[in-house]
Structure formats: structure tokens, C-alpha cells
Amino acid sequence: MSNSLIENPPLYASPAAEFLDDVLKGLSSASRSIPSKYFYDDIGSTIFDAICELDEYYPARAEIEIMNHYGHEITCRLGPDIRLVEYGSGSSTKTRILLNHLIDPCLYVPVDISIQHLTRTSDALAKDYPMLSVAPVAADFTRPFVVPMSEFEPRRTCIYFPGSTIGNFAQAEAIQLLADIAHRCERGDGLLIGFDLRKDRDVLESAYNDRAGVTAAFNKNLLHRMNSELGANFNTHQFSHHAFFNDAAGRIEMHLVTQREQSVLIADHSFRFDRSETICTEYSHKYSISEFKQMTAQVGWHCKETWTDQRDYFAVMYLER
Ligand code: AVI
What we know:
single chain, three-stranded antiparallel sheet, disordered N terminus, alpha/beta, 9 helices, binds N,N-dimethyl-L-histidine
């Protein structure tokens, strides 16, 4: 397969009807919420890249530190001639570190919900790694999609799931997703996954309440997206960003809080908001290594090795089926 020209990726991304259904369902429930996957349109994905550059947002740097420090060891674990499938590939920043060490990968399959971001990133990778076959797939990885096959039989498939995105699922959903990934894999296939570790409340809360307000803009982009794509009439100035660590649940929660009583119209459905009422837009779970080992073991994954950064803020775990 030539990589000089990346064909249009097969498209499995959420259509507008599904976005509307999820929003109406989420806003009709007693505790209002919207799935965090809807953050990632082209603008949201670009704001997320800016979050990763912030001083306060330690997870991105901690994971890069691990990949830079242990990249060789990690790729020795993965072995040569693999098909690498990345869930939620975004800008593929950490992938480049893997690719610099991997021996003769057969195929790289970035999977992302934002088609524009995916196409840009895949084109850039194809240019920078001319020997690599790249076959992007635009999909919501929580739903079934077909993984392209490589020209040569890979020694194994390895799922790369960096960025602690697994933390954005409620714990039961995270376990279900890990089980689904296991079912899609064959015995001996690998999973390289990054997750954020528990730490001081101050460090956690600063990471999601940066001084420059980039995370607030990321959160509010969801309102702009509902206005432009679903014809909603949210007054974005009347909502504020709120993020805090819920200790009992072991997670950061992000919310949009109404500043005053108001009604919002979305596709002929009217929603009344009391003053200070919130819409939960994201969970970001923080796990211990032993907790994460237990979660993965119960759905058929065997932990082979774990690497952490110097401050033990973040972990990257390699598991096999
Ligand atoms: C993508 N995900 C792992 C990020 C996180 O930290 O949970 C999303 C994010 N939300 C606010 N800042 C970053």
C-alpha cells in the first residue's frame, strides 16, 4: 500500500441525528449531561491540542516523558511487524515517538471521530514516515468499525489507546469498552494504554481550571456546537465552566453552570434551567495501578508491564490477550 496519497477514510463518525438524540436524552434526564465525545469537532480537537500545551495540564507532558524515556523498551514489548491501531488518535503526537522506535510496522490505523483532524494528521504522518502504510478510519471507537488489513500478515495487532481517554468513561463503561476491545482482538494481541493516576486534589483541579481559560473554552465549545449544528439557542455568556475533583468517585467532573434561570430551545424542544443548574460534560477518572490491573484482568487482559513518569502522575500499561 502506498502512503503518498491517503484515500478518504471510511466514515463511521456520529451523524447529526445521533448528536441530537444524545443531547435531547442527556438534557431530559434528572441530572443533565452530554457525552464528552461531542467535544471533538474540528474546533474542539484544536482546543484540546492547546490544552495539552498548558503548564497546568500535566497528563500530556507526563505521558510524553514516559514515551520518550521508555520508547525503546515499550516497542520491544510490542515486537516487530505489527498492525498498530490507535483509538482516538487526535494529533498522533505520542504515536510519533512509538513509530520512531517500532521495527517494520505493517500498518498504522488511526481512528478518530473528527474527520478533518484525522485527515490532516494522517497526511502529515504519511509525509514524515514515507515507509509507513497509514489507513485512517473516521469512527466513534465505542461502536463497531472494520479495521483495515495490511498488505503483509502482521505478527500481531496492537491497540494503542493513549491520552487517558479511558478515564472519560464511567467505570462500568470503561470495563465494557476494555471487554469489547478484547473481543475484537485475538489471543496474543496487545493493548498499550495510558491512564491518569490519583494525586493531590490541587494538582488535579488546576489541570482542569487553567488560568488562561483554555479548558473553559473547550467546555463551552459544546454550546457553540449545539447552536451551529443543532440550531439550539444557548446564550454561551450565561454559562460558566466548573471543574472539581469528586474524591468519592475518583474523578474530575466538568460541568457547564447556568448563571441565571433560562430556557433553551433545541429542535422544537424547550429546556428550562434553574439558576446554578449544571450540565455534566465530562468525567475524567483517576485510577491506581492496582485498580486498573483489576479492571483489565476481569475482562481477559494480562498486564505485562507498567511504566510511570518520575512523579508517578501518569501510567502506560502494556497488556496482552
Ligand atoms: C481526552 N481526555 C483524556 C482529557 C482529560 O483529561 O480527561 C480531556 C480534557 N478535558 C479537559 N481537559 C482535558
